Amino acid sequence: MDWIRLTKSGKDLTGLKGRLIEVTEEELKKHNRKDDCWICIRGFVYNVSPYMEYHPGGEDELMRAAGSDGTDLFDQVHRWVNYESMLKECLVGRMAIKPAILKGKPWHL
What we know:
By secondary structure, the chain is an alpha/beta fold. It contains five helices and six strands, in the order αβαβββαβααβ. Helix content is 27%, strand content 20%. Strands 1, 2, 3, 4, 5 and 6 form a six-stranded mixed β-sheet that branches. InterPro entries: Cyt_B5-like_heme/steroid-bd, Cyt_B5-like_heme/steroid_sf, Cyt_B5_heme-BS, Cytochrome_b5/Flavoprotein_Rdt.
C-alpha cells in the first residue's frame, strides 16, 4: 500500500517532470544504478529507482535488468503482474526504433 500511496502523491517518479521521451539503447544503458535505474519492458521504459524498496523480490532482482530490456526476465518471474498499472507513474517513454538499413537497395524508388 505504501507504493500506491507514493504513486498518488504527485511526486515526480520519472525524474523528467512529466515529459515522455524516446529512449535510445545507448541512453537506456546509462541508467544502470540503484539510484538511477531504468528498465525496458515490452518497448516501454520505466524509472524503477523509486520502486526499489517496494519490490517484493528485492533490489538485486530489479538490478538484474538495470539499463536494459528486462522483458524476458520479467516474463520468467511474474508475467501475470500488471506492470503497466503499477509503474505508470514511472513511465519515462518508449524505446526508439532503429531505422532499418537496406543493403544493396537504392534510397529512392
